[in-house]
Specification:
- The complex is a heterodimer of chains A (about 120) and B (about 110).
- In chain A, about 0% of the residues lie in helices and about 50% in strands.
- Chain A is mostly beta strands and about 120 residues long.
- The N and C termini of chain B lie far apart (about 35 Å).
- In chain B, a hairpin with a 2-residue loop joins strand 5 and strand 6.
- Classes of the chains: A mainly beta (about 120), B mainly beta (about 110).
Chain lengths: ~120, ~110
């Protein structure tokens, strides 16, 4: 069965420093992977997606993620954190065997950004 | 930019009561979903809906739950007899085709007392 594991439940960084949120996936197929962000009391917003094109994927707000098949990883990075980046981030996979693309969510990583 | 909308934003109900959560998906989308997120837990898939029928449902989606697309725009989730453990944030999502990224609404927070 396909799944994702987010390796950190909480990450804390200072404003202006790099962000790294880690995600490993488990899949028998070439997966479709996503990162979603959830700001407090808001819905889920798509940050970026990987669908077997370029392995380095750029998203909104300066975020990017690199698909590494050899490491089964899809880590999310940003060179310089802003206060507005404080939110919960979810790594998500589509189990392609299903056909109707229900999303499978990781447990989430809460990012705190300090001045 | 088109977006998924959900009403109400917050619903409080008593145990045993029926609730209907409403969603308006993006107009040209064909696949519709409900997810829920219990406080402090993962976002969980409940059900997917395509071509006016359920295409997949999770173990959570038992006989107490039903979905409907009563007209060309609304997509509803009904819980017939709510339990305390149904308290959660419920998200509606839609997508134009499968597999594809899904677009989420802002959620309805359901509180069962």
């Amino acid at each position: 069965a396909q799944s994702v594991t987010q390796l950190d439940s909480h990450v804390s960084v200072s404003e202006g420093t790099p962000v790294l949120l880690r995600c490993n996936y488990s899949s028998s197929y070439s997966p479709s992977l996503f990162w979603y962000v959830q700001h407090p009391n808001k819905g889920l917003q798509l940050l970026l997606k990987y669908t077997s094109a370029a392995t380095l994927v750029k998203g909104i707000n300066g975020f990017e993620a690199e698909f590494k098949k050899s490491e089964t990883s899809f880590h999310l990075t940003k060179p310089s954190a802003h206060m507005s980046d404080a939110a919960e981030y979810f790594c998500v996979v589509i189990p392609l065997s299903g056909g109707y693309n229900k999303l499978i969510f990781g447990a989430g990583t809460r990012l705190a950004v300090h001045p | 930019e088109p977006e998924v909308t959900q009403t109400p934003s917050h619903q409080v109900t008593q145990m045993g009561q029926e609730v209907i959560l409403r969603c308006v998906p993006i107009s040209n989308h064909l696949y519709f979903y409900w997810y829920r997120q219990i406080l402090g837990q993962k976002v969980e898939f409940l059900v997917s809906f395509y071509n006016n029928e359920i295409s997949e449902k999770s173990e959570i989606f038992d006989d107490q739950f039903s979905v409907e697309r009563p007209d060309g725009s609304n997509f509803t989730l009904k819980i017939r007899s709510t339990k305390l453990e149904d308290s959660a944030m419920y998200f509606c999502a839609s997508t134009p085709t499968a597999p594809y990224e899904q677009y989420f609404g802002p959620g309805t927070r359901l509180t069962v007392t």
